Amino acid sequence: MKMIMSRLHTFGMFRQQIHTIISQETIKPSYPTPSHLRTHNLSLADHIAPNVHLPLIFFYKSYKNADINTLKKSLSQTLTQYYPFAGRLHSPSAPHIDCNGEGVEFLEALSDSRLDEFVLNKEQDQTLNQLIPNSLGCAVNKTSPVMVQVQLNRFTCGGAALALSISHKAGDGFTVVNFINHWASVARGGSPINPTFFPSSTSNIQVPEFDFQGINNAKYVTKRFIFHNSKLMELKNLVNGLGMTPINPTRVEVLSSLLFKSAVGATTTISGSFQPSNLYQVVNLRRKILAKLPEITAGNLLSVVMAKMANPDEIKLNVVIAKLRKEIREVKEVKDVEEAGEVLANTLPMMEHDGRNYNFSSLCRFPLYEVDFGWGKPVQVLLQNETLVGRVTHLMDTPSGDGIEATVRLQKEEMDVFQHDNELLEYAQRI
């Protein structure tokens, strides 16, 4: 354990904010990983996934300072079962994780601010970066072999924020949420579980290497918007009235189509002309494929579909939903983990370049607000997407479950137009 220098940041226009890292250590599994499990061969989807750390931040109103040892001990116990998470990825293109038990990074920080200053902040700017480990500052972390990083932040009000980040190589969003819920259960006195890991790849398909350099040249900003269920129902009724749409679109479908339409409109306004625009949607394939595997299977089991809009007449809510449903229906015909990886390998290269691409992902219905370490359920969960590249939108349930919160990342000039879009504002509530 060692003392680290303070970080100084500016919050708003008037306040100098001090965030101090007071300790950093490595938490290792409570028992050594058996020799026959020392090499975790990646599935094709795991191998393809970029070595990106996407932190989730859980905010709690009442944190008990005495619980720090329980938190670390329960993490150590959980890592014994999730042994690849305590290993190392020796290069971004490595086909396996070395399950050497070297452990995960655990930082503890003190802030002179209150929890509400972060939760109520309208923009996802540099102030939120204080709550995550410094090494996550780059978009594609090609240097750090560490699979998991944790930072516990304590506020002056007695609250805390726990940031957890797992490399995408180790698993998808569902894996991350399962892991932290299991860790929280152990912290409350529950027993660790034994997750299943996806089988390694047997495919001869060439794994593409992605070069995201150049995408980050533009200035991007991220803002959050809330859409209450009553407004989403109004939007669903509007879409149903347009016709030509499969009946009863979901909340995620209608909201994604609205956000996409508004974002394309903003980009078109800035550039002065429409260009073909692509909506990329991450699709969770667990319900389809995991019928024969345990629900707690860890790893990547997802695909990405693309709905391409070739002309401005197609930028209509019902048309966007119809195209998305067609693509999703086709990708859900995959039969197993291997085939899912092959579909993903054929789709991701199209996302590499910063064209008119808009990337959407949903964590709705995931048990994010069930994560209880003994301090009660979180009052807010935020996904810090500043580590990503390009135009990205994440959807998750609001804390009360009465709507969807959208975290939208666009180029700065586009966001200036997007956030004033009249159709969007009919349904959205700015935080």
Can you offer a commentary on this structure?
InterPro entries: CAT-like_dom_sf. Strand 7 and strand 8 form a beta hairpin. This protein has 431 residues and is α+β, with helices and mostly antiparallel strands. It is globular, with a radius of gyration of 21 Å. The chain is 28% helix and 24% strand. The protein has 2 domains: 6-187, Chloramphenicol Acetyltransferase, CATH 3.30.559.10; 220-365 and 386-430, Chloramphenicol Acetyltransferase. It has helices at residues 44-48, 68-81, 115-119, 126-129, 173-187, 229-242, 251-271, 286-289, 317-331, 337-347, 412-418, 422-425, and strands spanning 6-11, 15-27, 39-41, 56-60, 96-98, 104-111, 148-154, 160-166, 220-228, 277-284, 302-309, 357-362, 380-383, 391-397, 403-411, 429-430. The two termini are 38 Å apart. Strands 1-2-6-7-8-4-13 form a 7-stranded mixed beta sheet. The chain contains 12 helices and 16 strands.
How is the secondary structure organized here?
Layout: E1 6-11, E2 15-27, E3 39-41, H1 44-48, E4 56-60, H2 68-81, E5 96-98, E6 104-111, H3 115-119, H4 126-129, E7 148-154, E8 160-166, H5 173-187, E9 220-228, H6 229-242, H7 251-271, E10 277-284, H8 286-289, E11 302-309, H9 317-331, H10 337-347, E12 357-362, E13 380-383, E14 391-397, E15 403-411, H11 412-418, H12 422-425, E16 429-430
